[in-house]
UniProtKB/TrEMBL annotation:
SUPFAM superfamilies xrefs: cAMP-binding domain-like
Species: Flavobacterium flavipigmentatum
Domain Cyclic nucleotide-binding as annotated: residue spans: 29-115
Name used for this protein in its record: Crp/Fnr family transcriptional regulator
Pfam family name, one: cNMP_binding
Length: 188
């Protein structure tokens, strides 16, 4: 739980009272590898901070799933569009490794906004984190070649990327597993 406070205190100062209110709403949950945190058609009720683990977001397809995001420890994960609108998600969120999450429900976040002086800033920081990841991903897809997208992911989380199956990485950077194998051979 202290990782979350440290994350927020990189950009804002929390009073002990505000932290107590915020932290009292958090619940910790551990999930095994390959657990669906959110299924398409379900409404996202959680904003989660990853203490340990790797999570992927993907569109389930008949022929092959389309992975569009990964989330790593010390960051947030949520079907954020569904969370904000409280409407069903169009995608799945799945753990790729055993994962420990600190979770906050939609209603508890609304209460934090009302009860604390810093609540809106906490919500904004979590939302900004998720937005920036999404924005960087979109820009990379538009501007970078597949090899650079792979290198970006590898640079971002070198110790963790080894735990992600290659077919998910290939899907994430928009190429076939065979093309990813060629890229990996070329840069190694």
């Amino acid at each position: 739980m202290e990782r979350i406070r440290h994350y927020f205190e990189k950009t804002t100062q929390l009073t002990d009272e505000d932290w107590h209110i915020f932290s009292s709403k958090l619940t910790v949950q551990e999930f095994p590898k390959k657990h669906l945190l959110l299924k398409a058609g379900q409404t996202e009720n959680y904003l989660s901070f990853i203490e340990t683990g790797i999570v992927r977001m993907y569109l389930p397809k008949v022929e092959k799933d389309l992975t569009f995001a990964f989330a790593f420890e010390n960051g947030f994960v949520s079907g954020y569009d569904s969370f904000l609108t409280q409407k069903p998600s169009h995608y799945h969120i799945e753990t790729l490794t055993p994962t420990k999450l600190w979770r906050l429900t939609y209603q508890d976040l609304q209460n934090i906004y009302q009860e604390t002086k810093i609540g809106h800033q906490i919500g904004r920081l979590a939302g900004e984190d998720l937005f920036l990841k999404k924005s960087n991903r979109e820009l990379s897809l538009l501007n970078d070649k597949a090899e650079q997208r792979y290198l970006n992911l590898f640079t971002e989380q070198p110790q963790l990327i080894k735990q992600i199956p290659l077919q998910y990485i290939a899907s994430y950077i928009g190429i076939t597993p065979q093309a990813l194998s060629r890229i990996r051979k070329r840069i190694s």
